[in-house]
């Protein structure tokens, strides 16, 4: 509410101009680039974990374990901030490990690259019920394949106008890309089912 802000501004001492026409305040505070870099590293890791949780439709209340792999310097900083990392990423604080080499169950984990030299491994079994996810993705793949076949049928029609054909081609390309991504994810999940059995 700008009128309230303006009223508060005018109540401050030594104010000559209205807030709306006042210059932005200049600060002379020193910038600690090392702290900024550390924060950006933590931010990238949180973003990567959140994206993986969203991609695999992990319930928001579910806490998952993780292994963070990085150099000793990065690990030292992130380990100091592990409570913040666990809180922002919904990770299980008791099962949050820091190391400089991939964990033994890396082939059964979702591998995240958060930045140069910063990786995380999230055990797939902690995130989703693999058999239910395979079933869900199989149904979704079947539906996407039908949609893609419909686009291909429309493209085979010789009487369609060029602008319609162009739009259908774009939709078909998008559908094909989604189908390939879903097939890759399904293959990954099925390989994990075989390993876990």
TrEMBL record:
This entry's Enzyme Commission designation comes to 6.1.1.9
The Valyl-tRNA synthetase tRNA-binding arm domain covers 129-189
Gene3D superfamilies for the chain:
Isoleucyl-tRNA Synthetase, Domain 1, Valyl-tRNA synthetase, C-terminal domain
**Pfam families in the record:** Anticodon_1, Val_tRNA-synt_C
Q: What is this protein called?
A: valine--tRNA ligase
InterPro entries the record matches = M/V/L/I-tRNA-synth_anticd-bd (IPR013155), tRNA-bd_arm (IPR010978), tRNAsynth_Ia_anticodon-bd (IPR009080), Val-tRNA_synth_C_sf (IPR037118), Val-tRNA_synth_tRNA-bd (IPR019499), Valyl-tRNA_ligase (IPR002303)
Q: What class of enzyme is it?
A: ligase
Residue span(s) of domain Methionyl/Valyl/Leucyl/Isoleucyl-tRNA synthetase anticodon-binding:
1-63
**Which species does the entry assign this protein to?**
Stylosanthes scabra
Spell out the coiled coil positions from the record.
127-192
